Every structure is written in C-alpha cells, then in structure tokens.
Amino acid sequence: MRAWLQTGFGGPEVRRLSEVAAPSPAADEVIVRVLAFALNRLDVLQRHEPVVPGMAVPHVAGMDFVGEIVAAGADALRPLVGSVALIDPVVSCGHCEYCLAETPTYCAIFQTIGSTRDGGMAEFVAVPARNCSVVEVAADDRDTLARLAAVPVAGATAWRGLLSAGKLQAGETVVIPGAGSGLGAAGIQIALAQGAEVFTLVSGEAKRLLAETSGAQHVIDRSTGDWVEKVRELTGGKGVDLVWDHVGGRFVGQALRATRTGGRVVLSGTTDGLDTVLHLPDLYQPGRSIIGHGSYSRADMASAVAAFAGGSFEVVIDSVWPFEQLPEAEAKLESNDFYGKIVVLGPSFSLVPETTP
C-alpha cells in the first residue's frame, strides 16, 4: 500500500510517499481504509523531533482520520465491516481503572495512533475496534468526510476544556484564543452552541475579518493592543467568567487578569511555551482558579462527535488537499497562513482537490 513514511527527523524531505506492507489486524482490531485525515500541529512537531515519548521512525503520522472498515480480527465485531467510522486516536488496554473510568490517556500502556503507532497518512490502518465510532456517511461524500476528519482531536479537546473541565454554562462569557486554529475554531462553535458569549482573539486584519464570520460576538486583534484591557473594557471592567487557554507560556498570566473575581482559567495546551511566570496576587486575591484540562475521555469524544453529527456545531475547514499533495498541505500548516482545519483526502480519491487550497 502507499503511505507517507517518515524515516528520520527534519524538514519535509524526511517524509516520502512510499510503498509499505499493508497492516494485518490483531484479534481485537479492524483494518480501516482511510478516506480523509486532518492535520495537527503535532504532525509537524514530531517530524522535526520525537516530542512524544515512544515515538520512533520509520513512522506513519496522522491522528485525525475517518475511513471505511474493510476487515476485522477474530475478536472484533464482524458487522463493523463495510461501515464508515471516525477513529479515536487514543489506544489503551481497555480494562485498567483508568480505562474503565473512560480516561484512557492515563493508562500505563497508553499509545496514540499517528504518534506512537502508525496513523492515517496511508491507504490502510489497523486500529482497535473499540476506537471506532460508526457514522452515517457515504464513502464517496468528500465534503462530509473532510469535515468529519476535522472533529476528533480538536472537537474532543475543546469539549473537554470548555464543558467537562471548564463547566461553561449558557449566558457565561468566555475568551477563546486562536480563532483561526483548529482548536480555537472548534471551541468557538462549541461555546456558541452552549449559549455562551464568546470573545475570541486573532492576530492580524485578515484573520480578524475571517473570525467575524464565526459567530463570536467579540473579535479582538491581539496585534493592535492589550487584549486583556480590551476584554475588561467590553465587560464593564469585570472580566469574563472563563478563559480557555490552549496557548500556555506567558498567556497564562494574561488569562488570569482577563477573568472576573472568582473566574477561572482552563489550561489545555502549551503551544506558546512550557513555562510561565505568574503574579500570584492575580490568582489568590480575587479567588480565581487555574484548572488543569486533564485527559479528554471517551465520553468527551463521543459527545463532540454526536454534537457534530446532530448539527449542534460545525467545524471550520481551511482547505482540502489530495493525498499526493500532503507536503503542500503541511507547508500551509507550518506557514500559519490558514483559518480552520487543513484536511487531506485519502488516496482512493482523485488527484483534483475538492476545495481549491
């Protein structure tokens, strides 16, 4: 089969379209024919270096994908064959205390499809049957497949950060940074569906104009001034109920100052840095809270998928690319010149992209 095989660490040259052996399913696994996959920042980061413990080359990346189940192992459910499924990339033992509590990323044998085991940048992938969520979509419906591929990691992470950990309620105010990122775009839609008043942050006029179409009530351009002061101005000096911080680094301290007395910050990521400096009175004197995002659960994933399928929220797609143009799609991701998720179609589709990149 064809796959984008990573054989080293570095630039785009370390990932090449290659002929590799097709996978065989273990007893509890199924074989998925990949129909579409969405790019994540991790795909590029681990191309440069093994940022996730246990990741090694040769390797096939791709965490977010949807595909058709074409074969099943001896213990997997045979009726799954022929179905289209969305794949949860988190693989675990299935029976320890963490797995039984539906928090598989804490499992001692936790692995990630697309990071510590081969992922969706290929014609076929072997995945545990329990990781498959069957969806009602035709295997040739490019538009729906592209949007489905963009749901798993961004959707489940946003659901966890805003609702499960953040306890965002209808009528509350929330700041969501990075409106143009996959996480930010998903978060905006989930928060709006919850009935929250959304403040979102962008950098630059082009992304401000795009973000204004997202439905967010307030779009703030961080490049034009102090976003914290702007949030406080727009809330009558009070600050917001919640800041969902999937940025990290120095943003954490800014997020605290943007919340009201008794407000809360949910920390979900560290794309801007692993360390921060806090002015502690900003935390304890107003009774604010910093909440660790924790592992998204299978319930978070299922809720995000169900909400998307039910039309409660929509994913934002920047562009859709053919399988053979993965390097160009990755270059777009690395350029930061995108808004929403970048999706690549599986190799069974035509070389002509559905959406002009």
UniProtKB/TrEMBL annotation:
- Gene3D superfamilies annotated for this entry? Medium-chain alcohol dehydrogenases, catalytic domain (3.90.180.10), NAD(P)-binding Rossmann-like Domain (3.40.50.720)
Location of the Enoyl reductase (ER) domain: 10-344
- Output the Pfam families linked to this UniProt entry: ADH_N, ADH_zinc_N
Q: Which UniProt keywords apply?
A: NADP, Oxidoreductase
State the name under which the record lists this protein.
Zinc-binding dehydrogenase
